[in-house]
Amino acid sequence: MNDALRLLEQFGPTFAAVTSLMLTVVVSSHAVLTRRDGHTAIGWVGLVWLVPVGGAILYVALGINRIRRRASVLRRGRHQPPLGPRGMQTHRSQGGGDDGGRPMQGDTEPTPSGPLVTLGFRLTSAPLATGNLVVPLQNGDEAYPAMLAAIAGAERSVALASYIFDHDAVGLRFVAALVAAQARGVAVRVLVDAVGARYSWPRTSTVDLLSARGVAARRFNPTRSPIRLRYLNLRSHRKILVIDGTTAFTGGINLRADCVLAEPTAHPTQDLHFQLNGPVVPQLLHVFTEDWRFTTGEHLTGPAWCSAQTRHGATAARAIPDGPDEDFDKLRRIMLGALSVARDRVCIATPYFLPDPEIVAALDVAALRGVTVDVLLPARSNLRLVQWAMTHHLWRVLDCGCAVWLTPPPFDHSKMMIVDDAWALVGSGNWDPRSLRLNFELNVELHDPALAAALRELFDAKRAGASRLTRAQLRAMPLWARVRDGFAALGTPYL
Questions:
Q1: Tens digits of residue pLDDT in 366-382
Q2: All residues at 6 or more sequence positions from 65 whose CB lies less than 8 Å from its CB, including other chains
Q3: Domain 125-320, CATH 3.40.30.10 — does that match?
């Protein structure tokens, strides 16, 4: 025993130092090889070297994208393109296309947003599906009745994914509709984010309610935390409802009573959702089935999960999935591409606006080219820390001529981007690092001048009730508030 203690005393510090050095080298090498963003890699390497052992532990706990690795394992062996669901033509030789490499599904009439057709295809390998009918639905007042009616009319399948599915009056109506569909023999699958499912805590979650009544309901990426953590990473922020493979709903609306403005609630929330019918619906269903497979291992096959591609309208559309897996950075690149081709006006509505330097530069260049750039934000955010960080960043887009408009309460959670009354981007993604890098999102690009003009009118109606933010107002803020906002902005990569 004494000999062992003497050896430990003599060689212990050396062994610990060598082990610490090896751990530091291995962990910092992993960060350099796997982190796509250079600033993030520098930050982790600096932490690992400046805080021996402790920095390595933090990196292993927080810096490794385990969900991306798990997704790769579950999806190993899949040979079709990322958005190539069963029966959908995705290759130019199958789906048709012009010499510019812009595959389209259905008619190939010219579109004023041709470069974005090419960009979307090269990012997603999915065709631009023509012949869709897309109907905007404002707030839960319009969205929920349409969604519940669709579930009530389902004959074969219901696929529902949501970030938040509250245990409240609205949530219970959806629970009842889903249970009734299951009782009719409809195949029902429900996927709720594990953090979003805890927004009803301490009440029983709707996932548990559905499971107790025989409906297949699961939590996406379960966490061990007993409470909800709004800033937890790698969440499924997608909102998808697909009925019988023919009707779909997507946008920004969660399932909660706060989104019904006709009824009094503690935190009323404006929002925007969309009903889609046509050949783009299989793309949304495919995103859901992949998420369900990722979560449960179950492959949704058979007649219940087949998708029709009947034409219903004049809108060309394509689903743009985004996440920290093989879909990384697609949404951000679509945004950058749209800003680069804008000629007249860009309208952006988002509840959270924390653009990275590249997006700021693209916004500024668009404004300097003479494009009118309007950014519509809520005057009061539902997340105070995000509000402070947003305020700190706004001077960057104001300096080059972008206009920032602040909408009064109730809090506006709407998300849309409109370019030149010809193209629009709608869905679940926000203009912040959480949506663009850390979470799973689903947006849909819409190529239709009439629809884009209608959305611009909706945007202008919101802007008419907003106040324009000026640089003078930012400069007039108290010093303590500017310092507070600056410190909050340090957390931007994770907000």
A1: 999 999 999 999 999 99
A2: 34, 234, 324
A3: no
